[in-house]
Amino acid sequence: MPFACPECADPGSLAIAASIELPSDSRSDEIAVQIVGCARCGFRAAAVYEESRRGSLDAEAVDHAGYRMAGERLDDLSALIGACSEPGNSGCRCEAHRRLGQVDDSGRWCGLPETTGSFAMRYSPDDDPSVVAGTGTGD
Ligand SMILES: [Zn+2]
Ligand SMILES: [Zn+2]
């Protein structure tokens, strides 16, 4: 599933390279931490996907944001995700899940440490069926 790269502005070259599911917290039912990378310019970053199905039936809220991190921190995060044998299991109790899944006193997930900025994770328009390609006027 391609996303727009915030660095080279390619609309569909940013892809999710790794992902780990964390336990739900006081706000979100689903939390996933991801590593994203651009095939075109080599840009790498972390991303967080959060989904909340609380509240009224139709009020499904999705929050997907990318986070810039120092290369070293990103390597650490990538290694941590790679160290878990069950990244798709939010109930896993390994070291990676314990370190990434920390919550604060109010039960809210603490988020990613040491990020240096954030950007929107946007789907590639090519993948969006609501976008009609071309006007069909010919030449
Ligand atoms: Zn790029
Ligand atoms: Zn784990």
Characterise this structure.
- The protein has 139 residues and is of the alpha+beta class.
- It has one domain (14-123).
- It has helices at 71-83, 95-100; strands at residues 14-22, 30-38, 44-52, 61-69, 115-120.
- The protein has a five-stranded antiparallel beta sheet with strand order 1-2-3-4-5, covered by helices on one side.
- Residues 131-136 have low confidence and may be disordered.
- One zinc ion (ZN) is lined by residues 5, 7-8, 10, 13, 38, 40-41, 43.
Secondary structure elements and pairings:
Layout: E1 14-22, E2 30-38, E3 44-52, E4 61-69, H1 71-83, H2 95-100, E5 115-120
Antiparallel strand pairs: 1-2, 2-3, 3-4, 4-5
The biggest beta sheet, please?
Answer: 5 strands, antiparallel
Low-confidence stretches: 131-136
Helix content: 10-25%
Our count of domains comes out at 1
Helix and strand element order: EEEEHHE
Number of H/I helices: 2
- The outline comes out as globular
Q: End-to-end span in angstroms? A: 33 Å
Key structural traits:
5 strands, 139 residues, binds zinc ion
Give a quick rundown of the structure.
This protein has 139 residues and is an alpha+beta fold. Helix content is 14%, strand content 30%.
